Protein backbone atom coordinates (compact mmCIF):
# COMPACT_ATOMS: atom_id res chain seq x y z
CA UNK A 1 0.00 0.00 0.00
CA UNK A 2 1.77 3.12 -1.24
CA UNK A 3 -0.16 5.87 0.53
CA UNK A 4 -1.41 5.91 4.08
CA UNK A 5 -5.10 5.21 4.59
CA UNK A 6 -6.95 8.00 6.44
CA UNK A 7 -9.66 7.30 9.00
CA UNK A 8 -11.45 10.24 10.64
CA UNK A 9 -12.51 9.90 14.27
CA UNK A 10 -13.95 12.04 17.06
CA UNK A 11 -12.99 11.50 20.70
CA UNK A 12 -16.01 10.98 22.95
CA UNK A 13 -16.57 11.01 26.69
CA UNK A 14 -16.35 7.21 27.06
CA UNK A 15 -12.79 7.29 25.64
CA UNK A 16 -11.51 9.39 28.56
CA UNK A 17 -9.77 8.35 31.75
CA UNK A 18 -9.91 10.04 35.16
CA UNK A 19 -7.40 12.70 33.99
CA UNK A 20 -9.77 13.86 31.22
CA UNK A 21 -7.65 12.59 28.34
CA UNK A 22 -7.82 9.44 26.22
CA UNK A 23 -7.07 6.25 28.13
CA UNK A 24 -3.96 4.42 26.92
CA UNK A 25 -5.87 1.27 25.85
CA UNK A 26 -8.27 3.35 23.76
CA UNK A 27 -5.45 4.32 21.41
CA UNK A 28 -5.19 0.67 20.41
CA UNK A 29 -8.99 0.37 20.06
CA UNK A 30 -9.10 3.42 17.78
CA UNK A 31 -6.37 1.93 15.60
CA UNK A 32 -8.23 -1.39 15.48
CA UNK A 33 -11.31 0.46 14.25
CA UNK A 34 -9.22 2.18 11.56
CA UNK A 35 -7.82 -1.20 10.43
CA UNK A 36 -11.30 -2.73 10.19
CA UNK A 37 -12.48 0.18 8.09
CA UNK A 38 -9.47 -0.26 5.83
CA UNK A 39 -10.26 -3.96 5.44
CA UNK A 40 -13.91 -3.22 4.61
CA UNK A 41 -12.88 -0.67 2.00
CA UNK A 42 -10.73 -3.41 0.45
CA UNK A 43 -13.55 -5.98 0.41
CA UNK A 44 -12.36 -7.96 3.43
CA UNK A 45 -15.10 -8.32 6.04
CA UNK A 46 -15.32 -9.97 9.45
CA UNK A 47 -17.53 -12.61 7.80
CA UNK A 48 -14.91 -13.24 5.08
CA UNK A 49 -12.22 -13.81 7.69
CA UNK A 50 -14.35 -16.33 9.56
CA UNK A 51 -15.55 -18.09 6.41
CA UNK A 52 -11.98 -18.45 5.08
CA UNK A 53 -10.47 -19.05 8.54
CA UNK A 54 -7.57 -16.74 7.66
CA UNK A 55 -6.88 -13.31 9.09
CA UNK A 56 -4.39 -10.91 10.63
CA UNK A 57 -2.92 -11.43 14.07
CA UNK A 58 -1.09 -8.86 16.17
CA UNK A 59 2.25 -10.07 17.54
CA UNK A 60 3.53 -6.90 19.23
CA UNK A 61 2.46 -3.28 19.68
CA UNK A 62 4.55 -0.26 20.63
CA UNK A 63 2.81 3.03 21.40
CA UNK A 64 4.62 6.37 21.56
CA UNK A 65 2.45 9.05 23.17
CA UNK A 66 3.31 12.58 22.06
CA UNK A 67 0.32 14.91 22.70
CA UNK A 68 -2.74 14.16 24.79
CA UNK A 69 -6.15 13.81 23.19
CA UNK A 70 -9.14 15.39 24.91
CA UNK A 71 -12.91 15.20 24.67
CA UNK A 72 -14.52 16.00 21.31
CA UNK A 73 -11.22 16.43 19.48
CA UNK A 74 -11.36 15.40 15.85
CA UNK A 75 -8.42 13.30 14.73
CA UNK A 76 -7.14 11.35 11.75
CA UNK A 77 -5.61 7.92 11.97
CA UNK A 78 -3.12 7.38 9.15
CA UNK A 79 -2.38 3.70 8.53
CA UNK A 80 0.35 2.20 6.36
CA UNK A 81 1.95 -1.23 5.98
CA UNK A 82 5.43 -2.54 5.29
CA UNK A 83 6.67 -6.08 4.76
CA UNK A 84 9.39 -6.86 7.28
CA UNK A 85 10.34 -10.46 6.47
CA UNK A 86 8.77 -13.58 4.96
CA UNK A 87 5.38 -13.88 6.67
CA UNK A 88 5.63 -10.75 8.79
CA UNK A 89 4.62 -7.15 8.23
CA UNK A 90 4.54 -3.90 10.16
CA UNK A 91 1.53 -1.68 10.60
CA UNK A 92 2.24 1.97 11.30
CA UNK A 93 -0.51 4.18 12.74
CA UNK A 94 -0.07 7.90 13.16
CA UNK A 95 -2.78 9.72 15.12
CA UNK A 96 -2.93 13.36 14.05
CA UNK A 97 -4.88 16.17 15.71
CA UNK A 98 -6.80 18.81 13.72
CA UNK A 99 -3.97 21.29 14.26
CA UNK A 100 -1.51 18.87 12.63
CA UNK A 101 0.22 17.78 15.83
CA UNK A 102 0.97 14.08 16.11
CA UNK A 103 -0.72 12.69 19.19
CA UNK A 104 0.69 9.17 18.99
CA UNK A 105 2.52 6.73 16.78
CA UNK A 106 1.79 3.04 17.02
CA UNK A 107 4.04 0.39 15.48
CA UNK A 108 2.56 -3.07 15.25
CA UNK A 109 4.20 -6.34 14.22
CA UNK A 110 1.68 -8.66 12.60
CA UNK A 111 1.22 -11.71 10.42
CA UNK A 112 -1.56 -13.73 8.83
CA UNK A 113 -2.96 -16.59 10.90
CA UNK A 114 -4.64 -19.73 9.57
CA UNK A 115 -7.31 -20.64 12.13
CA UNK A 116 -7.61 -24.27 10.93
CA UNK A 117 -3.89 -25.00 10.77
CA UNK A 118 -3.30 -22.92 13.93
CA UNK A 119 -0.15 -21.36 12.51
CA UNK A 120 1.19 -18.33 10.69
CA UNK A 121 1.11 -18.47 6.90
CA UNK A 122 2.40 -16.41 3.99
CA UNK A 123 -0.33 -13.84 3.25
CA UNK A 124 -2.69 -15.01 0.48
CA UNK A 125 -2.99 -12.78 -2.59
CA UNK A 126 -5.93 -10.69 -1.38
CA UNK A 127 -4.06 -9.90 1.85
CA UNK A 128 -0.84 -9.15 -0.03
CA UNK A 129 -2.68 -6.56 -2.13
CA UNK A 130 -3.78 -4.80 1.04
CA UNK A 131 -0.66 -5.20 3.15
CA UNK A 132 2.32 -5.15 0.88
Give a short summary of the structure.
With 132 residues, this protein is an alpha+beta fold.
Q: What does this entry look like structurally?
A:
The relative contact order is 0.23. The chain is elongated and about 45 Å long. It has one domain (5-131): Thiol Ester Dehydrase, Chain A, CATH 3.10.129.10. The protein is an alpha+beta fold. The protein is built from 3 helices and 6 strands, in the order βααβββββα. Strands 1, 2, 3, 4, 5 and 6 form a 6-stranded antiparallel β-sheet that branches.
Sequence-ordered SSE layout with sheet pairings:
Blueprint: E1 5-10, H1 24-41, H2 46-52, E2 54-65, E3 74-85, E4 88-97, E5 102-114, E6 119-121, H3 125-131
Antiparallel strand pairs: 1-3, 2-5, 3-4, 4-5, 5-6
CATH topology: Thiol Ester Dehydrase, Chain A
Q: Work out the radius of gyration.
A: 15 Å
3D shape: elongated
The CATH top-level class label? Alpha Beta
The poorly predicted ranges are none
Question: So how many helices?
Answer: 3
Structural class: alpha+beta
Helix content: 10-25%
Q: What letter string, H or E per element, gives the SSE order? A: EHHEEEEEH
Give the termini separation. 6 Å
Largest β sheet strand count, sense and barrel closure: 6 strands, antiparallel
> Could you name the CATH homologous superfamily?
Hotdog Thioesterase
User: Could you report the average pLDDT, rounded to the nearest whole number?
Assistant: 94
The count of strands amounts to 6
Strand content: 35-45%
Structural domain tally? 1
Q: What would you say the CATH architecture is?
A: Roll
Amino acid sequence: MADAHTYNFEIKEHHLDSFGHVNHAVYLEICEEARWQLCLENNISFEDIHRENIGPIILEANVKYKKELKNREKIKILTSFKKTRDMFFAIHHKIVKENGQVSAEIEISAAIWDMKLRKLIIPPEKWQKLLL
